[in-house]
Amino acid sequence: MEDVLLEVAENANTYTPLGPSDERIVDDRFVLWMGRGDEPGWNVAQRFRLRTDEVESLRDEILGILRARGRTACTWEVGSSATPHDLVDRLLALGLVDDEPTPLAVGMVLTEPPAQAPVDVEVRRAESPAEHLAAARIAAVAFGMPEPTAVRPEHDPNNLVYLAYVDGEPVARGSAAFGEHAVTLFGGSTLPEARGRGAYRALVAARWEDAVARGTPVLVTQAGPMSLPILSQLGFREVCEIRILLDEFDR
Q: What is the pTM assigned to this prediction?
């Protein structure tokens, strides 16, 4: 089971359930996940098992797949188990660059209940278009992106969005993908003025409760420098590292 959790933490998009508009190509050499848009984060190549003489031709192969679907950029997630062991250097030599500002993520796993959520934070699943828009706006503010004016939510029971409320106002959001072996956490973010109130902790606790209810009491995630300390405090343990590279091949 430990090997499976390492795999899920290192290659999240390989194991999470596909949404209504998602596509995934699984090959012995790589996995390519394509989501709903053209942004690099919606097009992810990972789980590389290559010989040294395959790297350049594989990049050409992946770019051909993406171009055929009208995509212009993607990210390459090179985990601790990827081969060849100098894959990052080889990709940098082909023109890829670090995906700034956080090109390094840490794969983390939680197998015990997290710390209890604060009682004054309420967490609910986003259901309505207004709730999904609130979640998207929180993420945009937290990550320094333009705020959306509308969203088109995809109703999928295996991929859920959660909102945390303080004093009746939505202040934090997080997503969960309910897979066969674990629940993968994505997109945890809190409005700057609400940080320190326990909203992030409440979101983790809510998703843990739903993971237990579904019979998969395991949470996995990939942490950046901002989320790593709090996830460690909540009981997550580090299992791998992922170097994230940006490939803007047609931009």
A: 0.91
